Amino acid sequence: MASAVVVGGGPAGSMAARLLAERFDVTVLDSRATSGKPVQCTGLITEETVRMSGIRPDILNTIYGAKVHFPGGGTISVSSERPKGILVDRHDFDIRMADAARDAGAEYRYSDKYCGAGILPDKVSVSSSRGKIDADLLIGADGHTSSVLRDMGCAAPRFVRGIQVDIKHRMEDQETMELRVGSVAPGFFSWEIPFGEYTRVGLCTRWSAGPPSDHLGRLLRRIGLDGKEVTSKISGKIPVGGVERTFGDRIMLIGDAAGQVKPVSGGGLYPMLKAAPYLASAAFDAMDEGDYSSVKLSAYEKGWKKEIGRELKMGCAMVRMYRRMSDEDLDRACRAADTPKMLSILDEIDLDAPSEVARKMLRHPMLAFRFLPTALRAVI
Ligand SMILES: Cc1cc2nc3c(=O)[nH]c(=O)nc-3n(C[C@H](O)[C@H](O)[C@H](O)COP(=O)(O)OP(=O)(O)OC[C@H]3O[C@@H](n4cnc5c(N)ncnc54)[C@H](O)[C@@H]3O)c2cc1C
Fold it and tell me: 106, 157, 313, 323: which is deepest, by most CB within 10 A?
């Protein structure tokens, strides 16, 4: 039987392992002692993402809307009858993803670190902290600091840095999250998400903005939550902007390792779940033809880019523009958005395809015209 080594037992590695195990002998290596710890995620995903995962994770809350705060005090509220987001327990999510892969036949080797790989004509020879494994195929699902990506000779993607705390505080409105844009979280945004007696507060910032913890401290003071009991704290990096290549001879990358993250929201679970079936399909075709060359495996990248490439590209363009906007520009955009048509477009926002909002706006010349001055100021 053909074999595959998957580096990384996070959600991307587990999803790839589950699908590959249908026809491959799969070994998953993870340097951690278990999947999902430490958590580096908010856990806000859509119903569609839960459906695609094929598991039933613990749900902490369901969110139906968002209130976006602008620097000058303006706000825009969006809401819908259908859930906008599901807040899941990310540790539990990762454990269940790994269990599903094991049920499909994959073997997990924890506390086993990938150290490098030699690509030979008839196999890939993988070195790990516990020895060597020969396989037909290597999958890099080793997250944002991917060693497999580095061994392919590709540069690391650009990152934003994130920090988040859970605070013992009950938000009045349990169905709405609060987002803040502008210099409160330079280059990205901050979030306050209710889940019962607790509130998840976090933000991401561009690399050059200094330690995110300083920005979080200021945010907590501003919203009156400093000094309250903090029950958990996490930090992490999110790759934005993609990587040069997600395949090579006998190699494919998935998840953060492949830069498969929505640039606008920082969400990585939906894109990797979209990419996984293309990875499995390219692997099965390669197995059938006994050809694991990069030419053969390039079908994987063509497939996943056809599915989500446009959203990632458009998202990057929106983030580039957003990063050039001053607080005053954002306040102007807030005022320009305050029309019934624009608010109805925003109400329809899909967390899995946030850049769709820009496309919908462009279909309404009057709306595009209202935003043009602000957009021009940001790009010139
Ligand atoms: C603050 C923050 C908030 C976020 N919020 C959300 C959110 O709300 N919704 C959402 O969809 N996404 C969110 N994300 C992004 C999401 O967490 C990632 O996109 C997702 O975890 C990527 O999954 P992955 O399996 O590719 O990588 P990871 O989850 O990072 O898993 C990689 C695995 O590889 C292992 N590994 C690494 N190197 C090696 C090695 N050399 N040898 C063996 N094993 C190795 C690691 O131990 C790890 O288990 C957030 C990220 C951050 C930082």
Answer: 106
The token pair that represents 125 in the structure block = 């020879």
Q: Is the pTM of this model over 0.85?
A: yes
Cβ-proximal residues to 106 (8 Å cutoff; 6+ apart), any chain:
6, 14, 17, 18, 20, 21, 26, 27, 28
Residue 273: predicted pLDDT? 98
Q: What is the CB < 6 Å shell around ligand 1?
A: 7-13, 29-32, 40-45, 113-114, 141-143, 147, 162, 164, 202, 236-238, 255-257, 261, 266-269, 272
How do 3-7 and 25-30 pair as beta strands? Answer: parallel
Q: Whose CA is nearest to atom 12 of ligand 1?
A: 267
Q: Hey, what domains does the chain have and what are their CATH numbers?
A: 3-41+90-157+241-319 (3.50.50.60), 65-87+158-239 (3.30.9.10), 324-379 (no CATH)
* Better-predicted residue by pLDDT, 114 or 350: 114
What would the 3-class secondary structure string for 322-347 be? HHCCCHHHHHHHHHHCCCHHHHHHHH
Residue ID of nearest Cα to ligand 1 atom 29: 10
Specify the pLDDT at position 353.
87
Residue 367 reports pLDDT greater than 70: no
